[in-house]
Amino acid sequence: MQIVEVDGHDPVVFEKFFKVRDDVRRAEQEFPVGLGQEETRAMFTADDPDERSNGLGLVDGGTWLGMAWLDWWLTENTHIVDVEIAVDPRFRRRGVATRLLDEVKARVRADGRTLLTTSVIGDPDTGAGSGTAFAQARGFVRKHTELHQVIELPMDAAVVDALEREVPGYKLLQWRDHTPQEWLADFADAYTVMSRDVPHGERTVEIQQWTPERLLAREAQRIERGRFTHTTVAVDTDGRLAAYTQMGGNRESPERLYQYDTFVRPEHRGHGLGIAVKIPNLRSLQAELEHPAVLHTWNAPENAPMIAVNQKLGFRASDQRVALELELS
């Protein structure tokens, strides 16, 4: 068996790498999610100032046994590398995941980083699963969980109509892929506050600091990779952005759509702005659907108000995403 480097520049190697991960997800998850092959390869080959991604494969002859995907953070959290490991079910319990993890740890240590993080999929109630058990058996400590909820689109129009509401003192604005120039500063600031306020559990994270320039660069990257977004914001009487929601997906895999963020500034909470921005954004998203799709969202269990909003809309629990950390000496 040998370790194969995957950087995205060899499309044949990358296809084999991607297939292992994609096959495992489709076999083990009721609603598999993840980036499409070409969008993922674009991540691996991009010159991104915020992160870089690469992969490893464990190969026996011409057979791919398993893979590891690594994300190296370059702006914030530069002491962290995030890893995902997947093993072809035919080759499990043969030490494939352990061999890949050992290789990953050696490379992370060589780079001077001190923390390895991972997220695994588990039972929707407890988070238990084979990935959780493997990680904890190798020293990873469970730090946080997020509930994964899904809903099939298009939604029943009657449900949408019944939940739509106006909130006195606020007006709603919408845009597509590009944030209007006049909202760049407010939107970047909302991103920063959201990064601070979103529940992190016991995870070790540095808050992302967003600027208009960073926001524009991320939008350009997203568009280049084939992603699209629908954004709805609530603006208060002073003309300040009070809440926003973003949904979208990638044209490569239109059957998978994502609720990226829904955020209400702390001083504006308690007025129902979360659902007030979600409903028109869902209308915008559904108006362009050409085929049925599944909308995915994740929330920490302590974010009960947002989970309740999703339940009102008809979302149901699919699984838990469990975040774990391993300190490297």
TrEMBL record:
Keywords assigned: Acyltransferase, Transferase
InterPro entries the UniProt entry points to: Acyl_CoA_acyltransferase, Bact_Acetyltransf, GNAT_dom
What are the N-acetyltransferase domain coordinates in residue numbering?
Answer: 12-166, 193-329
The reply on keyword Protein biosynthesis is no
By its UniProt entry, which PROSITE patterns does this protein fall under? Answer: GNAT
Instruction: Tell me the protein's name.
Output: GNAT family N-acetyltransferase
**Source organism of this protein record:** Kribbella lupini
